[in-house]
Each structure stands twice: as structure tokens, then as C-alpha cells.
Input
Amino acid sequence: MAIGENNLNILTRWLGDVLQGATFLTRLPVPLNEETQARPLATVAWSFPVVGLFIGGLAGLALTIGFQLGLHPLVCGLFAIGAQILVTGALHEDGVADVADGFGGAREIADKLRIMRDSMLGSYGVLALIFSITIRAGALASMATPTTAVLALIAAAAVSRAMVVALMNQMEMARTDGLASGAGKPTGEGMMVALGLAAVSAFLLLGAAGWVVLAVAAVAAFGVGMLAKRQIGGVTGDVLGAVQQVTEAAVLLAAAAVL
Output
């Protein structure tokens, strides 16, 4: 009986972590109790790829509906990306736009950070959003079959969010305040769980191509991380959003090329 209760407590805690991760990564109404809400975000970061599977699944549903309606593949891809944006509240798109404005619009670190925090959208940010949306939608449209596109989209959503956890663990914060700094640093164990979940998702959904997808995702994510380190000395919440966007685009392009 004690073993059964212990297993139930573990499952309950895992579910609470996933729900809290969903509260942060989406705009969906998620029921949370006071104990769950009090947990640091870094503690539940391992669940990000699980939430990514859910987000990718909803986007995949939108993609499938578009194909069933006989729409052009590019329009279907735009529907899928639009569904992601609705579910996440453009959380990651906001990050990539702010990073583009900050990195492209100033030379001094203090000025870059100030621009990234500014709510105004500049030309670099607009261009970054255009490229992010069109590249991902175009990659989906170029997939060999609708089924391949749906599976690649779900895998990309999970893998890209696992890479966010890896960057949170591996890199220093560029600010002592802000969302990323307040979230804390996931443990090495939490990072490995997130990466493990991403790897399993990639292989189950994409087969042997999972190796290519994971390698491309790692290069893309840490490429953005190294750029951020050079530009502002570390990562911020906006940089983590950019990591998700760049990695997802890279995974979709890789999947389109090899599948």
C-alpha cells in the first residue's frame, strides 16, 4: 500500500510539473493549486518538451485540417504556425523579435539589453518574425507527405523546448533581473530528463532521422547561445525564446531535407 501511495504521489508531482510548465509556455487555462504554483520554474523545466508535444499536436491538428480542406501546402503551414502562436501567446516570437532588434540595433551591451526590454518593435524584429514564420511554414509545405509534416512539427515543438532547458542549464544569465533570471537554473538531472524526452520523441516520430534532427537542433541552439554570449555576455528570456524559434526552424528544415 505504501509503495502504491508513493507511486501515486510521484505521478501527481510529475503531472503538477507538466501543468506548471504549460502555464508558463501557453496561454491555456490550466488548473493549479497553491503548492504547484509555488515551485520554481527551473524545477519544472524538465517538462517543457512534454508541453511541446501538446503544442505541436494542436498545431498538427490545424495542419491536418488544412490539408483535408484541400488548401495549398503553404497555407496549411501558415495555419499550423498560427495555431502555435495562438496557443503560446507568441511567447517565443516575441523573444526572437526582441533579440533581433537588440543585437542589430546597438553596439554596447547596455544598449542592446535596453532595446531588448523595450516593447516597441523595430525593423530587425519585424524581419526576424517574417523569416521565422515563413521558413517554418515553407518547411512544412515542402514535406513529402502531410503525415510527415505533422510528425516533424510535433517533434520540432518538443526538441526545441528541450534545447531551451539545456541553454538555461549551461549558460550564464546576462541580467540579474528579468524572467530568465527569476526562473533559476535547472539541475543537470532536469536537463538530462528534458533532452532524453526530446530524443525519445524524435526517434518515435521520425525514426532514424531523429539522429539528424537532434544534431541539427543542438548546433542551432548552442549557436544562438554562443552568439548571445558574444553580444550580451549570456542569455535572457528573450534569447531563450529565440533559441526555441531558431531550433524549431532548423529541425523542420532538416526533416524536410532528409524525410
Observations:
- The CA atoms of residues 14 and 47 lie 8 Å apart.
- Residues 46-258 form one domain.
- The chain has 13 helices and no strands.
- The chain has a mean pLDDT of 92.
